[in-house]
């Protein structure tokens, strides 16, 4: 009983933290509703919901990595590589989708493990290690796919095609992941360790806890999330594009930072990252419906990212007073 | 140098390991930097043989289109019975202009006889090609045409060998128009802003649509990418429910459009056309989910350029541009 109550309290607190973001999100929805003809329709929101799982998966992984004061620049490329492996195994090796999907997830996990292990083993900044992986994984993608788009078709499309209450399977899985990741972060020992490592790694080490396996685990999780994002991406498109996920790491980082997670580590929330993803997705969809041209799109997106973070900053200060 | 640094730092174990790490990172970055952009096939110095040496400087080898172009060039060289030597290079992505300029300079230093270049930027690479010409190297421009105004300004004449993208796009647009009715709503998916071939294709689509009196309700960039096209089209379907056709400036974007139509259940009512004739789209054309595409014979494009360069080397004359064929591809023309 009391456990349930405190979980609820935790969620309410969570909601409080994200109030500024909800405000920005609603503001955008109202704005686009006024300037376009058909933004306020169930179709728009279903479209957005079915498109964001890739970004949500990446943002969940990225939140964890930022929590431990790391960064993972490789997620976009790893998404590409996982997608290419999925495409290769289904088209050329004739795999059934279940083993192909598992292989895809495994590829992500291996890339993540490599990131984590190299970072920890030589005490390198994760920035440079994952930057290396960004290059290497993209190279691997081109190698695996021979730089060609692999068309898979209905054998994979049914994953994204399965729907419940009008929403596709990947978004339900993504929402479930957000819930689980938030609970793990705020209510488990593993979560506490992550916060502690992000706040002061040396103190963690001196208090007799080995931070290394935890850090590696976080990178593995981030890699797995990239694998899940690849499954969602490929099943939605029915094809594995060798250039998939290019620059996606920055979208993920932007979403997570909009969500108030600190780049310095130790502070953050998965639910808020989801709101960050939603803000970026609503913006993208709305601008496309407006028919805005490229320069406008980029200027507006850049400005909204910064304004969202500024608003959140003020709201936080007010909350502390 | 390496060992000196290590000796110097020996008393401080931590510092030493950090330095090792730094050197490791430095070396790996250098290796990474060179290995992913240099696809140099042969780097023998000049005058070892009297065979003409032709350098092919490509755009992104990450793109299927340029990959097949390069393969075509290699096959051409192999089929020529070794009458010329081929050195081919490519850059990492289509925007890496600086790196491409460096490649041209390396080719000048190697004293090749001819450079066949698919410029990543139609203006920024003119001056480095000018230097090559001043060094007595024959320069042939393929795929992406150098900007006329810049060439005129420098008083240069660089022959262009390549397809007419605008004409190709117009062919596809006209084929589409036959299946539509006057006043139908259509949308164009553009390439990366600023890419000349993308702009030409867009113009070709517009020519055909205006001639057939269709209403272009939207024209936005999806950066040549499947996923971005997918998201863009999903948004367009909401805003323009009576859309009748989507004209994608390349096939990757056409794939993304088809996926968006499928999830919106509008595959039957909206037609999609593409450009490039990649293998993935051929399957969709057979299913009737993509109406048509355009083949500009990318596999032969570099070979055309090389042949042209060899011709110039032999005759010492500078003839004008040469247009390579563009063909409409429909399910009927597929093998």
Instruction: Give the terminus-to-terminus CA distance of chain B.
Output: 61 Å
- Please identify the structural class of chain B as seen in this structure: alpha/beta
Mean pLDDT across all amino acids of chain B: 83
The largest sheet of chain A is:
2 strands, antiparallel
Estimate nothing, just give the exact number of structural domains of chain B.
Answer: 2
CATH class of chain A: Mainly Alpha
Beta-strand share of residues of chain B: 15-25%
**Helical percentage of chain B:** 40-55%
Summarize the structure.
Chain A is an all-alpha fold.
Characterize the structure shown.
The complex is a heterodimer of chains A (321) and B (335). Chain A has a two-stranded antiparallel ribbon with strand order 1-4. A two-stranded antiparallel ribbon of chain A has the order 2-3. The longest helix of chain A is centred in the last third of the chain and has 27 residues, at 211-237. The radius of gyration of chain A is 20 Å and the shape is globular. Chain A is an all-alpha fold. Chain A has helices at 2-17, 19-35, 42-51, 53-67, 75-91, 97-121, 126-145, 154-161, 169-187, 189-199, 201-206, 211-237, 248-258, 270-290, 294-320, and strands at residues 150-151, 163-164, 167-168, 239-240. In chain A, strand 2 (163-164) and strand 3 (167-168) form a beta hairpin. Chain A starts with a helix and ends with a helix. Chain A has 15 helices and 4 strands. Chain A has a single domain (43-320), classed as ABC transporter involved in vitamin B12 uptake, BtuC, CATH 1.10.3470. In chain A, 78% of the residues lie in helices and 2% in strands. Chain B has helices at residues 2-8, 13-35, 64-79, 97-109, 126-134, 148-154, 165-177, 196-211, 226-239, 251-264, 279-286, 298-315; strands spanning 53-57, 85-89, 114-117, 138-142, 160-163, 185-190, 215-221, 243-248, 271-273, 293-295, 322-324, 327-329. In chain B, strands 2-1-3-4-5-11 form a 6-stranded parallel β-sheet, sandwiched between helices. In chain B, strands 7-6-8-9 form a 4-stranded parallel β-sheet, with helices on both faces. Residues 1-22 and 28-48 of chain B have low confidence and may be disordered. By secondary structure, chain B is an alpha/beta fold. Chain B is built from 12 helices and 12 strands. Chain B is elongated and about 65 Å long. Chain B starts with a helix and ends in a 6-residue tail after the last strand. Chain B is 47% helix and 16% strand. Chain B has 2 domains: 53-158 and 298-324, Rossmann fold; 165-295, 3-Layer(aba) Sandwich (Rossmann fold), CATH 3.40.50.2300. At the A-B interface, helix 3, helix 7, strand 1, helix 8 and helix 12 of A face helix 2, strand 7, helix 9, helix 10 and helix 11 of B.
């Amino acid at each position: 009983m009391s456990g349930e109550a405190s979980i609820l309290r935790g969620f309410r607190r969570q909601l409080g933290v994200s109030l500024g973001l909800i405000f920005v999100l609603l503001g955008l929805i109202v704005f686009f509703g006024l300037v376009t003809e058909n933004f306020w329709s169930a179709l728009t929101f279903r479209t957005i919901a079915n498109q964001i799982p890739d970004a949500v998966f990446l943002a969940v992984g990225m939140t964890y990595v930022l929590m431990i004061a790391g960064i993972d620049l490789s997620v976009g490329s790893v998404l590409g590589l996982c997608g290419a492996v999925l495409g290769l195994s289904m088209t050329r090796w004739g795999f059934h989708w279940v083993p192909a999907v598992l292989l895809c997830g495994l590829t992500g996990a291996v890339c993540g493990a490599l990131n984590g292990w190299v970072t920890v083993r030589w005490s390198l900044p994760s920035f440079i290690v994952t930057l290396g992986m960004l290059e290497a994984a993209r190279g691997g993608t081109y190698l695996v796919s021979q730089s060609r788009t692999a068309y898979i078709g209905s054998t994979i499309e049914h994953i994204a095609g399965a729907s419940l209450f009008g929403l596709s399977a990947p978004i339900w899985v993504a929402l479930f992941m957000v819930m689980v990741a938030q609970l793990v972060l705020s209510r488990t020992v593993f979560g506490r360790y992550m916060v502690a490592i992000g706040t002061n790694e040396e103190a963690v080490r001196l208090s007799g806890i080995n931070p290394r396996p935890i850090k590696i685990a976080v990178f593995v999780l981030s890699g797995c999330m990239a694998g899940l994002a690849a499954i969602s991406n490929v099943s939605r498109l029915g094809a594995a594009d060798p250039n998939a996920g290019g620059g996606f790491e920055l979208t993920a980082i932007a979403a997570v930072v909009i969500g108030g997670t600190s780049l310095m580590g130790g502070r953050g929330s998965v639910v808020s990252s989801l709101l960050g993803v939603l803000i970026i997705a609503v913006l993208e969809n709305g601008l496309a419906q407006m028919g805005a041209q490229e320069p406008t799109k980029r200027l507006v997106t850049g400005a909204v990212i910064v304004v969202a973070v500024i608003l959140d900053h003020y709201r936080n200060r007010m909350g502390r007073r | 140098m390496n060992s000196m640094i290590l000796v110097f730092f020996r008393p401080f174990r931590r510092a030493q390991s950090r330095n090792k790490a730094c050197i490791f990172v430095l070396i790996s970055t250098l290796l990474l930097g060179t290995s992913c952009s240099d696809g140099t096939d042969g780097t023998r110095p000049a005058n070892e043989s009297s065979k003409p040496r032709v350098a092919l400087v490509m755009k992104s080898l990450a793109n299927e289109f340029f990959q097949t172009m390069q393969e075509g060039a290699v096959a051409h060289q192999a089929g020529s019975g070794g009458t010329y030597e081929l050195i081919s290079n490519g850059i990492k992505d289509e925007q890496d202009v600086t790196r491409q300029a460096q490649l041209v300079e390396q080719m000048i230093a190697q004293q090749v006889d001819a450079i066949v270049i698919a410029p990543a930027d139609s203006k920024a690479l003119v001056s480095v090609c000018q230097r090559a010409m001043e060094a007595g190297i024959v320069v042939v421009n393929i795929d992406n045409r150098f900007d006329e105004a810049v060439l005129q300004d420098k008083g240069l004449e660089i022959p262009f060998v390549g397809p007419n993208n605008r004409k190709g796009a117009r062919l596809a647009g006209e084929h589409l128009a036959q299946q539509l009715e006057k006043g139908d709503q259509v949308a164009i998916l553009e390439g990366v802003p600023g890419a000349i071939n993308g702009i030409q294709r867009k113009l070709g689509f517009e020519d055909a649509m205006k001639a057939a009196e269709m209403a272009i309700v939207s024209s936005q960039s999806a950066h040549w990418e499947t996923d971005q096209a997918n998201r863009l089209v999903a948004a367009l379907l909401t805003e323009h429910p009576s859309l009748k056709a989507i004209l994608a400036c390349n096939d990757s974007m056409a794939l993304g459009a088809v996926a968006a139509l499928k999830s919106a259940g509008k595959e039957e009512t909206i037609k999609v056309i593409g450009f490039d004739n990649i293998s993935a789209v051929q399957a969709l054309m057979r299913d009737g989910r993509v109406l048509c595409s355009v083949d500009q014979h990318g596999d032969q494009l570099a070979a055309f350029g090389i042949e042209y360069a060899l011709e110039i080397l032999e005759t010492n004359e500078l003839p004008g541009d040469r247009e390579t064929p563009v063909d409409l591809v429909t399910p009927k023309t597929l093998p």
